[in-house]
Design a protein that fits this description.
This protein is an alpha+beta fold. The protein has a single domain, classed as Nucleoside Triphosphate Pyrophosphohydrolase (Alpha-Beta Complex), CATH 3.90.79.10. The protein contains three helices and seven strands. Strands 1, 2, 3, 4, 5, 6 and 7 form a seven-stranded mixed beta sheet that branches. Helix 2 runs antiparallel to helix 3. The longest helix is centred in the C-terminal third of the chain and has 17 residues. The protein is globular, with a radius of gyration of 14 Å.
């Protein structure tokens, strides 16, 4: 069995109308999820998340390492993937999607984002991350 590891985050931005979350449609697979990418040698999980988010979206974020969720699944019969997702916040609104990786990137109110995500596991991670942000975020 081969193993791959990626790290990313559920990114929240507080707007005038409440909290929004960043969703991306991947060019590969076309599913809607969160920005993430492979760990490079010497990086911590949170460093990977920050780097990948910046590369894929142009956003500088503050990763909250107190929230960490895992998602494991097989991407091929002989390969298991571990995805580590943190909660993150940003004050930035403008997104610059990396065209090789991201077909589309957009902000949605948290309530609408849950219905837009492709996978149920991502919906649970987003809801848990949102509860964490509401509890710990200081404006």
């Amino acid at each position: 069995m081969r193993y791959e590891k990626s790290c990313g985050a559920v990114i929240f931005r507080q707007g005038e109308d409440g909290w929004n979350v960043l969703l991306i449609r991947h060019t590969k697979g076309r599913h809607i999820s969160f920005p993430k990418g492979h760990v490079e040698p010497g990086e911590t999980e949170s460093q990977t998340a920050e780097r990948e988010i910046l590369e894929e979206t142009g956003l500088k974020v503050r990763v909250d390492r107190r929230f960490r969720a895992e998602n494991r699944y097989n991407i091929r019969p002989d390969t298991q993937k571990l995805v580590v997702i943190f909660a993150a916040t940003t004050a930035e609104e403008s997104i610059t999607p990396q065209p090789e990786e991201i077909a589309e990137a957009f902000w949605l109110p948290v309530e609408k984002a849950a219905a837009t995500l492709t996978y149920e596991r991502d919906r649970k991670i987003m809801r848990d991350a949102y509860e964490h942000i509401l509890k710990h975020h200081r404006a």
